[in-house]
Amino acid sequence: MAQPRALLSVWEKSGIVDLGSTLSGMGWELVSTGGTARTLRDAGLQVTDVSEATGHPEVFDGRVKTLHPAVHGGILARRDREDDMTTLAELGYGTVDLVCVNLYPFEATAARDPPASNPELIEMIDIGGPTMVRSAAKNHSDVIVLTSPEQYPSVLESLSGANGDPSGVDNATRQSLALAAYQSTAAYDAAVSNELENRFAGHDVPSRIHVSSGPGSQLRYGENPHQPAAFYPAAGEPSGLAAAVQHGGKPLSYNNYLDLDGALRLARSLCVDAAGEPHACVIVKHTNPCGAAVDQDQVGAWQNALASDPESAFGCVISFTKPVEKSTAEAIGDHFFECMIAPGYEPGALDLLSTKKNRRLLTLDPIGPRADEVRVRQLDGGWLAQVQGPPGIDWDSVECVTQKQVDTGELALARFGSAVLAEVKSNAIILVASTANGCATVGVGPGQTSRVAAVRIAARRAGERAKGSMMVSDAFFPFRDGIDAAHDIGVSTVVQPGGSVRDQESIDAANEHDMAMLFTGKRLFLH
Q: Among residues 56, 138, 247, 356, which one is catalytic?
């Protein structure tokens, strides 16, 4: 067997010395570049510089070093093709039997705060690395390709069992490594494309959708037991639910993830990044809020959110915007919920909440105010993308269109109601009311094909608490029947976007019933 050669060129140096040392001990020649070569030499290993193998110096501050036929010929030559091997020999090049490359940290550089400059970011676009990875993956039947330190031990074990012979790595392993290699370069290209579009084009939504992820985690099943499912974290540094830490309980299910996403979006919409911020509590069932409240006291926020619809809150998902206090855990008691997510848990709270073994308790720190973001949704034959975030209503331009006017306190209640309403499936109606120390929903009517039906559902859930409440609608009322129904249950103020050709009929109805009505000019559909 001819002496095998490994080309090692990595940004992330974890495990590279052990890899190089083990390969060298099995009789492999090590070829390397720049910082990787220095790291290996500092560990006492003999290394051939890639410039020696190519007969050409590294140039342009290392921009050009491995882009040479001596490198790619050695990788791409097919060992079972006599003409390939003859040509390689005539050129005086040797084979490369293992390529170990990980790429420049483009995503980490792009995510820096303050942001990296464009020239600095451009230097983090790897050229030679992805090219070698793709070459090695293409010829994986002859070349072992490693793109992550996690892959080193199993490959070394296979080589060790074969006394260093590259043929000791079976074809199934080679295919798996090649697939991982192409996935890594695809994710890298997606990250570059997305970041440069943000910087160079500045579109509100992308001109193309390039989505990449980290490795998926298999879930027990999807929405129903017959549906396979998995969770895929976004590529790069963990964020959102991928960054949450779970404290015991069963693994999260597909439906848990959906409900946690809905709870987290609303919690962030109610979160204010300021000193003295009140507590917010959100209760979600099947992605719809069934209760939400803000209060100076966390126990009060929980109790008022629960009171909105205690029946639907059975088996719910709960989110808090501040660490859960022990007194709140005591107030929750034996209430059956599936998951809770919060920035943390005060001493004793986690123990109390964990007495029910099947509860999934998660920490995500921080849970800060929500910002606009592009959200992508797949449909049959393509994708939709839109910017989503808090309602974004300009409250200085909101118009009171009735004889009865509203005061400052009612405007604060309308802001709260609109934030909650924006996360309720359309057609949506919610009833909200001021509490002793904040605001709370008292009735939620989600996802109806008829707006007046949504009013009736919200009223039924509110019961007597509907009297004196504020009704918030995600779209205009096409007829006055919704306003009449609201009057019948005791609503005092209506908040809606306006914009119907029959707006005046709704205004006249509100005036007849001595109700105030606000036009926000902002529709809040959620499908």
A: 138
Over the stretch 495-512, which tens digit does the pLDDT of each residue have?
A: 999 999 999 999 999 999
Q: Say if CB 28 and CB 164 are below 8 A apart.
A: yes
Could you give the 3-state DSSP secondary structure of residue 309? coil
Q: Tell me the per-residue pLDDT of 141-155, one tens digit each, with 9 for 90 and over.
A: 999 999 999 999 999
Query: In this structure, what DSSP letter does residue 199 have?
Result: I
If DSSP codes are grouped into helix, strand and coil, which group holds residue 54? helix
Percentage of residues in the chain having pLDDT higher than 90:
82
User: 214: Cβ–Cβ under 8 A, 6 or more apart, which residues?
Assistant: 232, 233, 234, 235, 242
Residue 425 is among the residues annotated as catalytic for this protein: no
- Token digits for 283? 């209760």
Q: What is the DSSP letter of 134?
A: H
Distance CA(43)–CA(444), nearest Å, equals 66
Rounded to an integer, what distance in angstroms lies between the CA atom of residue 204 and that of residue 152? 42
Catalytic residue from among 56, 210, 286, 335: 286
- pLDDT recorded at residue 290: 95
Q: What dihedral do alpha carbons 86, 90, 94, 100 form, nearest 10°?
A: -80
**The pair of three-digit structure tokens given for residue 339, joined into one six-digit string:** 């998951």
* Residue located via tokens 């370069």: 185
Give the C-alpha distances (Å, rounded to integers) separating 437 from 221, 289, 324, 433.
42, 21, 18, 11
Selection from 293, 329, 273 nearest residue 465 by Cα = 293
| Separation of alpha carbons 225 and 218, rounded Å | 13
Q: Which amino acid is at 338?
A: E
Q: How confident is the model at residue 211 (pLDDT cuts 50, 70, 90)?
A: confident
Residue with tokens 């293409």: 138
Helix axes 152-161, 171-196, angle to 10 degrees: 160
pTM score, whole prediction:
0.87
pLDDT band at residue 276 using 50, 70 and 90 as cut-offs:
low
At residue 146's C-alpha, the angle toward residues 140 and 151, to 5°, is 120
Question: What are the DSSP calls for 249-303, one per residue?
Answer: SSPPPHHHHHHHHHHHHHHHHH---STTPPEEEEEEETTEEEEEEEESSHHHHHH
Active site residue 140: no
Is 178 within 8 Å of 140 (Cβ atoms)?
yes
Nearest-angstrom CA–CA distance, 358 and 249: 5
| Residue 418, Ramachandran bin (φ over 0: left; ψ between -120 and 50: alpha; else beta) | alpha
